[in-house]
Amino acid sequence: MNNTQIPIDELYDQLTLILQEEKYAKSTIQLYQEHVKRIKKFMLANNITDYSSSVADQYYKKEVESRDYNYTTKRFFRTVIRRCCGILKL
Fold first, then answer.
1. pTM score above 0.85
2. Angle 90-50-83 (CA atoms, 0-180°, nearest 5)?
3. Where are the domains of the chain?
4. Which residue among 59, 63, 79, 83 is least packed, with the fewest CB closer than 10 Å?
5. H or E element at residue 50
6. What is the pLDDT of residue 82?
């Protein structure tokens, strides 16, 4: 398939399904979902409809890098973004 962009709600659903299939704990899935909701909020605020790697870069620079999150939190943000971008390649 190899999409370059995907509607954020479809991304949310696909990521949830993948994490469930990989037997992630419910609490971990919820954590991923919360981070995708943050990305969606960013996208809505910037009139962006489809998720893409460039949206991921914008989000990380504006919403994560610029804030005083600790290393572990920033690393998890990057993990979520990496998993989301991986869905674009399916």
1. yes
2. 40
3. 5-88
4. 79
5. strand 50-52
6. 95
Give exposure, 2-26, as e/b (b: 16+ Cβ within 10 Å).
Answer: eeeebebeebbeebbebbeeeeeee
pLDDT for 50-82, tens place per residue?
Answer: 999 999 999 999 999 999 999 999 999 999 999
40 within 8 A of 8, measured Cβ to Cβ: yes
Supply 24's token pair: 């992630």
Q: In whole angstroms, give the CA distance from residue 39 to residue 33.
A: 10
| Structural contact between residues 30 and 48, judged by C-beta atoms closer than 8 angstroms | no
The owner of tokens 């790697």 is 53
Higher pLDDT, 22 or 1: 22
d(CA 31, CA 81): 13
